[in-house]
Amino acid sequence: MLNQIRWHQPNAEVNPLEYLNFPRWYVHWRNGRRMNKYIGKELDKRYSENKADPENTRTKAVIDLVIQAYTSQDKANLPENLDPLFREFAIRQIRLFFFAGHDSTSSTICYIFHLLSTNPSALARLRAEHDRVFGLDPSAASTLLSSKPHLAKSLAYTQAVIKESLRLFTPAASTRAGDPRVALTSDAGTSLPTASAIVLMVHTEMHRSPKYWPRPDDFIPERWLVGPDHELYPRKGAWRAFEHGPRNCIAQDVVMVELSVVLAMVAREFDFTECYAEWDALHPAKTKGRKTYRGERAYQVQEGAAHPADGYPCQVSVRRR
User: Fold this and answer.
1) Could you report how far apart the first and last alpha carbons of the chain are, in Å?
2) pLDDT in tens, 74-115
3) Distances from the Cα of 150 to the Cαs of 35, 105, 146, 153, 257, in angstroms?
4) C-alpha closest to that of 173 among 204, 213, 210, 198
5) Helix, strand, coil proportions of the chain in percent (round to 5)?
6) How far apart are the C-alpha atoms of 56 and 75, rounded to whole Å?
7) Computed from CA positions of residues 42, 48, 54, 58, in that sequence, does the dihedral angle turn out positive or negative?
8) In the 8-state DSSP scheme, what is residue 215?
9) Cα–Cα distance between 115 and 164 in angstroms, integer?
10) 49 or 6: which leads in pLDDT
11) Distance from C-alpha of 194 to C-alpha of 181, rounded to nearest angstrom
12) So what's the pLDDT on residue 107?
């Protein structure tokens, strides 16, 4: 999957000549076959296990939920093998889950540690919260989270750090189909019909708009902890990291817990330092011209989801106490 993402063509819509990159087509075809074979084999295995024990509903893995939904209609007359059309559809949907669950989350993890490393006071407050909830021994966090998983949702400041990181570096945008009955209004008051159009919502631009956010380019986790009367209190509907309505992210609760667990396990053990100066010195041909956007060297580039430029070169060191 990672190789598939690296061969992604984010500029194809702008430069159609990129479709002539025939090695890319081959790599995508080969990777697709390998992923389909692996997922298909696992689907067949889980289907056989489900037939042998149809009442087993303990597992909540997405691949098992797919099988359970498929077999729930007529458990007494299950075919020997999965229906080929359903199997193909399930493989494609599971591939999408894997991609969405890994790519955007991994990018967000990078940006969280980047923002914490460049904002020492926020890092200190986050570590203090973890000390208070999990105790002073970082190695004990895993045991506590295993026995008391609800602790992951009790980390108010950690959740604020995650939301603020997603505000500044949202890993994905969203689209909506236009409708003759719907028109958008620009900041200048111009009515913009959406009929026969696709509306692209660039969340990062909305999240950094001074119209909706005081000090929009600053990393301020505290804005997620203040009351409605505070000037930093987020405006309703302005934060769209997981989108709203019927197209919202169905895994957003899982993502927030997952990121909280990652921070609880890692933030007190390691220090992260970006190394763009070293990377630029080693790759002068790749860094000609402007190197920053909004003053940020780790600006976002599209590689599936939005990722830090140049793979985010950094140094990871064991934290000194």
Assistant:
1) 38
2) 767 778 888 899 899 989 888 888 777 788 899 999 999 999
3) 34, 21, 9, 6, 9
4) 204
5) 55, 10, 35
6) 12
7) negative
8) S
9) 10
10) 49
11) 8
12) 93
Tokens of 146: 């295993």
- Percent of the chain topping pLDDT 90: 53
pTM: 0.84
- pLDDT the model gives residue 268: 97
Is the backbone of residue 315 left (phi > 0), alpha (psi -120 to 50) or beta? beta
* Eight-state DSSP code of residue 124: H
For the record, the structure tokens of 304 come out as: 């599936």
**Alpha-carbon torsion (212, 215, 218, 223), positive or negative:** negative
Closest alpha carbon to 174 in 107, 105, 242, 237: 242
Structure tokens at 244: 């709203």
- What separation in angstroms does the CA of 233 have from each of 154, 215, 217, 239? 20, 12, 15, 11
In this prediction, residue 163 carries a pLDDT of 98
Could you tell me the two tokens for 71? 């077999």
Average pLDDT over residues 245-254: 83
Which amino acid is present at 114? H
Residue for token digits 């000037």?
231
Residue 87: both structure tokens together: 């199997």
Count CB-CB contacts under 10 A for residue 273: 12
Task: Report in angstroms the alpha-carbon separations of 121 from 78, 218, 267.
Answer: 59, 13, 13
Identity of the highest mean pLDDT range in 11-20, 179-188, 213-222: 213-222
Residues in the chain: 321
Largest CA-CA distance found in the chain, in angstroms, rounded: 67
* Average confidence (pLDDT) over 272-288: 89
* Paired tokens of 165: 């990181």
Q: For 110-153, how does the pLDDT look when each residue is reduced to its tens digit (9 = 90+)?
A: 999 999 999 999 999 999 999 999 999 999 999 999 999 999 99
Three-state DSSP at 316 gives strand
